[in-house]
Amino acid sequence: MQDVAKRAGVSASTVSRVVNGDRYVGKQARVRIEAAIAELGFQPNRAAQKLRPGRPTDTIALLIEDISNPFYAAIAQGVESVAQQQQHLLVLGTTRRDFEQERGVVEELLRRRVDGLLIVPSTLDKRPYVELSRWAPMVFIDRRPAGLKADVVVLDNRAGARDAVALLVEAGHRRIGYVGGAETVGANEPRLTGYRQALERAGIAVEPELMRLNNHDIAAARGAARELFVVADPPTAVFADNNRMTVGVLEAIHDCGADVEVAGFDDVELADLLRVPVALVTYDAFAMGRRAAELLFERIVDRDRAPRRVVIPTTVVPHGMLGPAAGSRRAPDALEPVDVDVADRVVAMTHRRAR
Question: Is 223 helix (H, G, I), strand (E, B) or coil?
């Protein structure tokens, strides 16, 4: 700015007034300043302009576990679509399911004065988020720390898992294995509950020896599935509780040549090209990110409004022939996210045509 002022023969404060759109600058001085700006390629420091107390930074942040996972990539795209509409810059951070790393990123973002944060939390302990949320609005995605009063957008995890396992039961399977993550973390708990409910409703005992939990990546899921395939009475079908688990199970089937059918939560890349029949719990992850971003901007405007819980419905889509019942199932209608009141009294679903 000093260089522009020197070139135009004016003071730096006069340049500042032109840059900030102040109309109280003489015409001749304005022409000289604009010419000097063009000649020197001057760019205003927007970050510095936002340092005045109470000024927004026009920046929001999204913290996810792993950008390589298509689930999180789709969420990020949904968030970005709203950020662009609101003329905000989106900053993306990853946590790798490590809360200490997450805390460090959040604290740095708060120091940089982001206007709000969208977080897939690495812990369900509400205490650190109670403290951190004092400094900027927060909306949670996929799960909410236990007991924390905050906006959240989640999938209908229990129903999705229940429907997928019920499809396996309808296909004639009675021994259905489970490969998943930690039982008490985030979405895994309701998915495990849905698995158990589907078996219990069909009069099938839940057998712990057919369950492999606490897997955190494809390699672990692959090993867990291989263990299941060599037990004395192996499962004829397996439910995997996320897309990385599903890929691990499919790799184990390829390794062992096992005659096993699969149902999994989340879409899997190129599922239609798989030789192994697989049913997948699908949903609109883009809409999940978009709705979370909309809640964040609403929260930025009104910090005192009641928290909301939004449920994104799911549907089960068979790929390939899955037992004798596969061909008889029509893909349900397309789904819209549903706002649920603070007491979580109502969880409604709307179905429209998806495929």
Answer: helix
